[in-house]
Structure formats: structure tokens, C-alpha cells
Amino acid sequence: MTDQNGGHLLSQSKICVVCSPELGQDTAMQLDILVKDNGGEVVIHEEPSPFPPIQEFTHIISSTADFPAYQSACDALIPVVKPQWLQTSITKNKLANPRQFNPDPRLFFSDVVVTCGDIPDGDKDAIIGGVMAMGGLYSPRVTSQVTHLVDLSMDSDKAKTVLAKKMGAKIVLPHWFDDCLKLGRRIDERPYTLPNPEILHAGPNAPIRGAGNPDIVGASTPEPTELPTPSSSPYQNRNSSRNLSVFEGKHVMLSSDLGIGSHLLESIEDLIRQGNGIVTKDLTKADMFICRYREGFEYRTASRWNKDVGNLSWLYHLITHNTWTSPLKRLLHYPIHRDGLPAFKGLRISLSNYAGEARAYLENLVQAIGAECTKTLKQDNSHLITAHGNSEKCTAAKEWGLQVINHLWLEESYAKWKMLPVSDPRYTHFPRRTNLGEVVGQTKLDRNVLEQVFFPAEANADESRVMQSKDQNIVANPENNKNMNPPKVRAKSAAQSPAPTTTTTQAATPHTGKSSRKVSSLGEAKTPLASRFLEDGKENDTPSTNSSRKSKDAAAARIHSIAPDIALYEKEKKRVGGVIYGGRRKTDADLVPPNTKKRRSAEPEEEDEIEDDKGDPKRQKKAKLPPISIHLVITGYQRWIGSIKKEDSDKRQLRDLGIAIVQDAKKCTHLAAPSILRTPKFVNALAYAPVIVNVDYITQCLEQNELLDPSNYALKDKTTEKKVGFTLAAARERAKKNQNKLLRGYKVCCVETIRGGFDAFKSIVEANGGECTLFRGRVSINDTRRDDSSSDVEENNVDHSMKNDVFLLSGEEPEHAKLWPRFRQMVFEVGKTPRIVNVNWLLDSAMSQEVRWKDDYEYITNEEDSSD
């Protein structure tokens, strides 16, 4: 077929077809014929043969994103498309948009072609936009390609056409798309399918159908106990006699931290060898590295070199299914953290409505993230993870004020390695008549997160020395390392120009120094750790004078690839103090000694915030700077908004005048603001009784380039003072007497999703001597109040009737109100008085520097009104 310009449609295309369980050899051969008939070139790739160089191709056809070269293709901006892309391009006689045919599972509507029946225009636009954003297609007419018709009944013209022509499209309610988009997952259409959708007819207590889930088969635990039985590859040639081919030509390294016995270890190694794999103890040769924990030099090095790093569960999965899959595709196929995520320590999580392998998977995931998974639900639990909202556990959890969420919160917190807010609507959404167990295990690990947290680019000193010796050996013996995957070289900024390439072994690593480092570096490399990367007796080999041209080219290419790192190292080496954490020692002869001369005047640390860091000795003569006379906290200053350069310049000028800008209220002597504000900076600073000036003081000091008297610029805001019922002068005097003990002994709790943020209110309470904790359904109360005789706070400023009160900072939102009964119950149980208040109580008290009370501060429920 020729295109509109008279040439073949694919004449400029070279396409790689990736075989997989979903795309077998027969289908690959059909695609091969279609591509060639339209003028293109084609290569069929089957595991375990090495993937061809990715840069050769214009497109890659695959039914799945789970093949080794997928990430490399994305990095190289080479489109990965499903087979339907080819059919569509040929039908339209032009290359179709590859995005709509991306096999990435995150585009969960990629198999959907939707058309809309008699539904409102607003709903229609929203559905079309959501489907296309998630990889699907829209058709204005009913065609054979349509997979879903969105309608409200079977009486529309399009619905009658689908039925009459038996087109096979599913007729679903708009609610299905809405629930899928809210969850970010594709759920089963059956409860939404016309003519009798379950969500409209089933009773509220009717049991919800469970569903199988292939995503967690063989991936429900990070520590399997049974050795798997190999099976034939589902897309392998039937005439092949080989039973296990996933390790064909692969070097596999097993870490010592697996903790398995010698008998089991031998059995695993035998299985790898049966599949023509090679068991190695040399990480430089390994293609796969199997370990238990995300720690240690070998783990970090293998990860930086883009080896396939997985755990024993992943290795067993490869053996069982005889098909390669990424260890990042399933959360428990990747090594776990030994101690879990710190934010989850102490959490007690229970599960509800998950069954079978899905339940085992979530139980193991809870343990892997560092929390405790409880079989039963009690009041001391913190969270309930449920697949739907119909169960006794869900009812009890809501009554007790526990967090009720779906499993997506747990999975995505684990993948991003931080506790995500439970207030996200995606985590509290439970579609009617759907058991979310069917979408368990679809979350993938993010390699960028893993790299930032567990194997960042900068190495410590020991690793640098080992890498240095290893790289020297690579240049000396390039032929012995042809199968090694080179370390991933990070892109540097344009300012870091590559250093000139050279053929010396000393320049072959970004961690080497000057010539004086040669002997010491090689000497340090002779450690048990380094010996795994060097062949016995060859630490000091040098290139032969008769080396082939090929060897020289390989060495030159290797040097060129790491030239940016060499340039960066040379730059860092010149910094004051040297590259202490990059492999150099303080005793090195070429280390630039730091300037240890004492300053003429003792100056606090805030000065570092406004100093130049370019290493220019002339700019570092701190003796010329005047001593700091004012430590200033600034809030509400409009002059610097949108101009970082202006802000930096002004701060330097102010420092030259003796004014240091600080962020920590504890260190401030002065506070500058345009008026009385309710910002965290203003409220926190008030507790330390600073001199309060108008921001005009800053402007005038800058314009006159002179340190002016702050008493001439005192902040005056009579209007706000009248409104809030106190004067700044009186509040400052009370702050001096309180000495940051206004709320000492007060117990303040705060709901997690408070408007303004928990951290802001916590800082205000603690600046005034109180204790502030996050309320997640539990209250821990230690009575720290002192006797009246020992109080350092002015007696007239303390409301003694509130000494036994426990405060909960909350809003009026329904999600906050549902926590109130639980809070009151727990406070009453310890003999205290619960007070659920809005944030005005805390702000008014902290700003006036006296504990204030008005009935308007407290939320009163109907039950309390009736009891009164």
C-alpha cells in the first residue's frame, strides 16, 4: 500500500516485534508480513535472545510493557505500540498516533473504544476526555471497533443497533467510567452493564461478588518457601525440547543476604544452569542480581548499573512461568527494606473483604512497609484497609473513628516510599457492587524514587575506591569485560563541559585524582570487597603494547562516556575541603586545606543563608562584615515576590548593614510585617517577644543603605488591634513574662487534614510550650501539668478551669466530625474533659499571649446540647 505521497506507508520505518505470552510467534509472523508489504523493515525478538540495539528502530510493537528494553525505549523516545496500531495505520493509510496504542498498564483504557448514546452533553464530554487521557479512543458512530457504548437505557438508537447487529459491544452506565477514573484503575464492567445493572437493583446488604486476580499470582510474598516447578514458555516454539529458557545466556548472581541453606542454594543454581544460565559471583558480569534487602554495596552498584535487581520471589516467578518480567512490575518482587518506612512504625492495620492470595499479598505488604497487620480489628487499630464498605469491620471502624481506606493507599505509599495522605479521594472511594480485590497488585515501583532514596548517584568513599580500581582494570582488559553492562552515566548540566579524553588508565574513572593518587588508590583496592571485581593476580595489569585496534577503541569509548564525571570531579576537587565524601582522604597530599582562621567577631549560623558560595576568597573575608545586631524574621513582604535575584541581592545588602534574615523564630530579635497577620511566622515569632516593625523599615534600610533605628518604624495597626481585642505592646509584654510557657502542660490534638496543615499548628503550640500530636483515632495523655505554685506563667493569664481539658483542633467538615465521638470517648476514659475547637482558639491565644476562651471556639453536637 502506498501513502498519499506515492511512497510506501512504512518505507521510513524499521519495526521490532516483541514476542510475549499475549503476542505469540504466529501473530508476530503475520505482523512481519504486513510491515514488509507496506515497505518497512521488521525484526522479531524472542526472549531470551539479547534485545537488538534500541536506536535501530522507529517503532516497537508489543502487547505489553513488561519486556527488558521498555524503559530504554521510553528514554530514547521510541514509540512502543500495540499490534492494533499497525492495523489502524494501514486502514487509514497514515501512521496513527502511537499514544492511543501504548501498552503501558497505567493507561488502563488503552483497549477501550467508546461511543456515547443518549446521555447529557456534559457527561459525554467528561467521559470522552477521561477515556482518551487514559489511552482509549472515541468513535462518534457505532462501528465494529467499538468496545463500549455508554447509555442510560436500552431504548436509544445506538443500543438498538448494537443488539440488532450483535456487535458485541458492552452497554454500560456512565457510572463505570466515573468509578474507574476516581480509582485510577479499570474495574469489572459487570455491575454497570445494561439491561440489569447491579448497582441500581442490588440491595445494600447483598453480598458482593469476589474476583480472581492474576496480577499477584506468585507475587504475594517477598520470601517464598517452596522451590518452583519450571514450565514451558507460553510463546516458545512447541517443537523446542528446552523446558527452561528464561535464563538463556544470562549471568545470575545470588547475594549472601538471601539467608538460604546450601541444599536449596544448590537446587536454585541447578535450575539456572538447566536453562543455560550462568551462576556468577562477579557483579561486573552479572545480568541479574538476586538479594533480600535494599542495602549494601552490591545492591547499590547493581542498581546503578541498571542490572535487573529482584528478590527470590521474582526469581521463582521467572522459573515458574519461564517468561521474563520486570522486578519493578510487582511490589513484592523487589528487595524489601530491612526496617520498613519510618512513618508507618507503630501503625496497626487490619484488613477486611480481601480473600485468598490478595489477602496474603496485603498482609505481607503491611509488614514490608513497617506496620503491624492485625487479624482482628480493635479500638487501638489505626487503619482499616477494605475492598468494599459492606462489613462489620467497616461499621465498627467508622464508629471508632479509624481511618477506612482501600488498598491503593498502602500500595502507592510503598511505591513512593512515603506516607501519602489518606484524605486523597482515590483512597476512600468504594464503588458499589465492586470488590477492589480485583485490582490488587497493579501498582508498580517507581525507579526514580528507588534511585533517589536507596542508590543515589553519589557514592561513599569506600565504594569510590573500589569503583576506581575496577574501572582501571576494565580499561586495562577491555576484552575480558565485553559482557559487562557499563555504569549508568548521569547527564550533567551544560556548564560542566567534558574533559579531554585520554588513553591513560588514570583517567578511566571519575574518582581518580592527580598522579600522586595512583599508588594509594591501587593499594586501597586490595580489600575483600574489591576482590569480587578483579581477577586473581591481575590488579596491576597494564595494556599490552600489542593490543588490537578494537581494544583501544573500546577503551576510548569507555573513557568518553565518563568524561562528564571526570570534569565534575576535577571541579569538585578544587573546592575548599576537597571531595571528602567522593573517595579522597584528609591525609591526601593534594587536598586543598580548609580555611581554619577564626573570625574577628563571633557570628551565628544564619549568616550562611546569605553568603556567596562560589569559593572566591575575596568574598569570604568575613572580618569585613559588621557584627549582626538584628536577627530579623520577615512575613508579608511584597517586594521580593517573584524575584529571587532581587531577594538574594537585598539580603546580602542587609547583611552588610548588620541585619541577618532568619527563618527560625527561636533566633529572631525583630519581626517585620505590614500589619498584624495570622501567618505561622508571625504567630510563632510573637512567643519570643521580638521587636515588631513595619516592613517599611526593610525598604528604607535598603534605599538609604544604612542601619536605621527600628524604634522609629514600630508596627501600628489600630484597626486589627480593635478587632482582635489586644494590643501588640501588651502581647509582647505578656510574651516576655510567659517565656514560651503559655501552653505548657496543655495537650492539643489535631486532625490530619486540618486546613492550614498540621505542621503549622504544631509549631505554634510547641513555640508556646505545649504538646501537639496528630489525632488518628488514639489519644496518648501524659499528665505533665505542674502545681499552681510552680507556674512560671502570670496567674491572671491562665484559665484554671481548663487545666484538665484536652483540645482537638478540627474543622466542620464531615470527615472531621466523624472523629469527634471517638475523641470524646477516649478523653473521658482517662478522666479528662474533651474540647473540640476551631483553630481560632489557638491563634487568638498565641497572638494575645494569654489563654482565651469563647463559646464560639468550641463545636457542640446535638447530643451535647440535649444533655445540657
UniProtKB/TrEMBL annotation:
Residues 195-240, 475-556, 585-623 are annotated as: Disordered. Residues 30-103, 103-194, 339-427, 632-715 form the BRCT domain. Signal peptide: none annotated. Residues 604-614 have a biased composition (Acidic residues). InterPro entries: BRCT_dom, BRCT_dom_sf, CellCycle_DNARepair_Reg. One of its GO terms (cellular component) is Cul8-RING ubiquitin ligase complex. GO terms for biological process: DNA double-strand break attachment to nuclear envelope; double-strand break repair. Residues 220-234, 477-510 have a biased composition (Low complexity). It holds the Pfam family BRCT_2. This is BRCT domain-containing protein. It comes from Talaromyces rugulosus (Penicillium rugulosum).
